[in-house]
Amino acid sequence: MIDLLGRDNCLKEAFRLVHSMPMEPNVVIWGTILEACRIHNDLELVEEALDLLVKLDPSNPGNFSIVSNLYATAGD
């Protein structure tokens, strides 16, 4: 469901769903949110997704690469 909402550019709705889940979201869920932020160039939500993803998987440099490319595309 998170992936479908992300693909449809309903990122805020996807975030609400993640935060209302009865279980703790894992790396796959936050990675899906991060990728949806990249696809739709959503700089507003990418930082929250990255912060939570780094807490769960700090040794994955791919997450930083995605965010770096997103900011580069935005001109930051």
UniProtKB/TrEMBL annotation:
InterPro entries: E_motif, PPR_At4g14850-like_plant, TPR-like_helical_dom_sf. GO terms for biological process: RNA modification. One of its GO terms (molecular function) is RNA binding. It holds the Pfam family E_motif. This is Pentatricopeptide repeat-containing protein. It comes from Rubus argutus.
